[in-house]
Amino acid sequence: MKIAMVGTGYVGLVSGTCFAEAGIKVTCFDIDRKKIENLNKGIIPIYEPGLEKMVKKNVNAGRLNFSTDLANNLKNTEVVFSAVGTPPDEDGSADLSYVLQVAKEVGQNMTDYLVFVTKSTVPIGTAEKVKKVIAEELRKRNVNIDFDVASNPEFLKEGSAVQDFMKPDRIVVGIESERAEKIIKRLYKPFVLNGHPILFMDIPSAEMTKYAANAMLATKISFMNDIANLCEIVGADVTNVRKGIGSDSRIGNKFIYAGAGYGGSCFPKDVKALIKTAEENSYYLEILKAVENVNDRQKSVLYNKLYEYYKGNLKDKKIAVWGLSFKPNTDDMREAPSLVLINKLLNSGAEVYAYDPVAINEAKRILGDKIVYSDNKWDILKNADALMLVTEWNEFRVPDYKMMKKLMKKTVVFDGRNIYDPSEMKENGFEYFGIGR
User: Fold this and answer.
1) pLDDT greater than 80 at residue 92
2) Active-site choice (18, 28, 231, 266)
3) Mean pLDDT, the chain, integer
4) Is residue 206 part of a domain?
């Protein structure tokens, strides 16, 4: 079986590589020649545990290839996945120009029946637009070639994406024909042998499922952050509240951890896009608007605590920041809470020293020389007036209190992910501030 994966970003590269791992012939395409050259050398553009090794393995086996030339590589291709970006426009709606450009190129060059599948997150109704574009290009060529469109949203979590793809909770596919369903079933057969469900449905429902899933998870996070802020006011501990409600099977214990807000490439963008889709249809998603507002406010919580602690005087204070990526096990800093914190610290005249196990290069690309970077978490604690933990990397979970006290000028810790025990911190001579505690 031969498939094309257009777009070598996070979704496309992980998906294409995992398909190749299952024995499928995959060619990944991108217009970025430098990226393709690097991928052919085994150099991957993102950090994702296990991915680099898998890419090299499948390239060496001849199952995985990279190219910039989609037009001349469609012959005998049964499925074309569109995994290109859908960045938000200024009004929050998703920009479909890249998706429709791929559809146009496919329509201009396809020679046999194929299934065009939208893999990246796209608004409801995108498949219909794709179908019209392909049909129009075929009409211009005066050729009659059958094709189908489908929607197959991804549910990958950064940091565990390879595992998520190889052993999915579920596979959601929106289709319109039995022919397309048969091909998709064959494609995903290696991934459902252990009973993982593949859910076929109409295309609009599949497109909506992706947005609804991310919106629900974002809602749980913002809800818990709102409760955490109230906990501080009334004297409750949100970690106890979390355990109390998380044991209820109707609620569950996932995505109910209070913190400094969510970020990344999915939740912020998808919440905005779903709100915009509703508005375009004269409906208003009041809950999601609140989710977005709570999250925007939450990203300033750590800064506000520090500001209050130093009574508004942060000028020339040395602030150490542990963790820059929006979550552990990734170098992704899109919409990361750390960026809001750092910019507020800089605007207040503070000096920022930062460490992250993998996101330093990404931070340098975004922030330049505005802050001081280190590849050692201890170095940035020297004479620090405060430590702010923003990302809960495992290496931060069991701190060396003696080392910290020896290095820090002021032994105060602001824990943006509640990974430390307040009593233990106090016993070891630290002032401690968490979220909702």
Assistant:
1) no
2) 266
3) 95
4) no
**Structure-token match 């499928």, residue found:** 24
Place of tokens 């429902």: 205
326 shares a domain with 265: no
Can you give the pTM of this predicted structure? Answer: 0.90
| Better pLDDT: 88 or 37 | 37
The answer on 144 and 164 residing in a single domain is yes
Instruction: Reply yes or no on whether 231 is catalytic.
Output: no
| Residues 60, 196 within the same domain | yes
Looking at the structure of the chain, the number of domains it has is 3
CATH number at residue 249: 3.40.50.720
Rounded-to-integer distance, Cα 266 and Cα 261, Å: 14
Q: Are residues 330 and 245 in the same domain?
A: no
Q: Answer yes or no: do 233 and 328 share one domain.
A: no
Kindly report the number of other CB atoms within 10 A of residue 217's CB atom. 18
Provide the residue range defining the domain that includes 261.
211-298
Residues 360 and 391 placed together within one structural domain of the fold: yes
Dihedral sign of CA atoms 305, 309, 312, 317 in order? negative
Confidence of residue 305 (pLDDT cuts 50, 70, 90): very high
Reported as a single tens digit per residue, the pLDDT across 158-168 is 889 999 999 99
Query: What are 191's two structure tokens?
Result: 């991934």
Structure-token pair, residue 322: 């542990």
Residue 311 sits in the same domain as residue 289:
no
Q: What is the pLDDT of residue 86?
A: 83
Last residue of a domain, one of 201, 224, 248: 201
- Residues with Cβ within 8 Å of 254's Cβ and at least 6 positions away in sequence, in order, are 220
Closest CA to 302 of 213, 229, 359: 229
Q: What is the DSSP letter of 94?
A: B
CA 102 to CA 99: how far, in whole Å? 5
Residue 374 domain flag: yes
pLDDT at 22 over 90: yes
- Residues 147, 137: Cα–Cα separation, whole Å: 12
Q: What is the pLDDT of residues 201-228, one digit of tens each?
A: 999 999 999 999 999 999 999 999 999 9
Q: What tokens appear for 50 in the block? A: 């296990």
CA separation, residue 102 to residues 4, 70, 117, 134 (Å): 11, 9, 11, 9
344 pLDDT band, cuts 50/70/90, is very high
Q: What is the Cα–Cα distance from 330 to 324, expressed in whole angstroms?
A: 10
Same domain, 308 and 370: yes
Token representation of residue 331:
């170098």
- In 3D space, the residue among 323, 296, 321, 309 whose CA is nearest the CA of residue 371 turns out to be 321
Confidence check: pLDDT of 95 > 90? no
Q: Give the end of a domain, one of 265, 298, 331.
A: 298
| Amino acid type, 405 | K
